[in-house]
Amino acid sequence: MLSLKVVKLVGKFFSFIGIFLISLVVALYGMGLLFCYGPSVNARNLFVTTLLETGQLKFVVGLFMSDENVQKIVDSNSMANFDNEMDDNLINIDDSIDKNGLELVEITGSTYFAKMLIVNDPSRVKIASIYDGSWKEKGVTLDKLVNDNNAIAGVNGGLYYSDSNKGGRPLGLVVKNGVIECNNPTGIRGMHLIGFNEDNVLKIIDLSGKNAKEVEEVIKNEKIRDAVAFQEEASDANNHFVKLIINGEKREAKGSGSGANPRTAIGQREDGTVLLLVTDGRGKNGHLGATAKDLIDIMSEYGAVNAANIDGGSSSSMYYNGNFEMTSVTFYYSNSSWNLPDGFIVEKR
């Protein structure tokens, strides 16, 4: 008799779970239909473009809309071509500025929360990496990357192999203290260099189509001291973008320019001050994240002459003065960061 009661209880339990899951699926599907075919065009566009930027949920969009309609939405919410070349003469590093100056500010938007670290002295901003002769299979969290390099702060850096959150191998390019640690542009469409030259000027250089030897020549001629790589619209039309502001000119964004997601960006003011920005998203703190237009507007508001988007999503994180100010949006790493092979750090004074 006891075993029969147990069987009935187990049956009721699984029946409840089944009904709950079915109800959840129906509710989520209903929400998807509401976003895609409801009265708000902006909500539809943000829903589609945001999902297209995720690693695992791109397929969801196809459940509600045809490829043709999806493409129309992407085309109306993307970044305009931006071929402007940087004029280094617009950056005049102010030697009289307080070189110890660091300021952390909070920024709130309608779909995101962000923090920006303002670094007066650009010579303090460098690349830290785990390279010691050969790349490791597994990277390290941002706090370790910062502390192991006698730094006070840092944000995540460039492209890397993120499968299974191993994070030990960078993609495309890493330059540290003038030494090229990684130079493998093969297969990385739209690769850009983002980093600093020997004069501490932020450089954003299009390396599209260049082979390793040609990339090496650019690094030598531009006297690059520290840099990583990111991609310009390499896969989806709104998934990857680099240039945000060049020579004080804001890049044109059609619609929102992209979906809303966690972001990391870097910029520089006329006096050399460096701006390191990280936003949340993907449901963390109830926020979807920042769009490309959001990044452009923030960087412009804070005086950036040049600014670039770098690796974001679950990798976006900021560590400062012994604490994670912005952490990964991934549930399992919500109090830390993903494993990374490199990052931008701010050296101690």
Describe this structure in words.
Helices cover 25% and strands 27% of the residues. With 349 residues, it is α+β, with helices and mostly antiparallel strands. It folds into two domains: 2-75, no CATH class; 88-347, no CATH class. The protein has a seven-stranded antiparallel sheet, covered by helices on one side. A hairpin with a 4-residue loop joins strand 12 (264-269) and strand 13 (274-279). The radius of gyration is 22 Å and the shape is globular.
Rg is 22 Å
Query: What gross morphology would you assign?
Result: globular
Order of helices and strands: HHHHEEEHEEEEEHEEEEEHEEEE
Please give the share of residues in helix: 25-40%
End-to-end separation in angstroms reads: 75 Å
Strand content: 25-35%
Number of helices: 7
Number of individual domains: 2
Q: What spatial order of strands do you see in the largest sheet? A: 1-2-13-12-14-10-11
pLDDT < 50 runs, ≥5 residues:
none
Structural class: alpha+beta
Mean pLDDT over all positions = 86
Strand tally is 17
Main beta-sheet strand count, sense and barrel state:
7 strands, antiparallel
Topology:
Elements: H1 2-37, H2 41-52, H3 58-62, H4 67-75, E1 102-108, E2 113-119, E3 125-129, H5 142-147, E4 151-156, E5 172-176, E6 179-184, E7 191-197, E8 202-206, H6 212-221, E9 224-231, E10 243-246, E11 249-250, E12 264-269, E13 274-279, H7 292-301, E14 304-310, E15 318-320, E16 323-326, E17 342-347
Q: Could you list some keywords that capture this structure?
A:
349 residues, 7-stranded antiparallel beta sheet
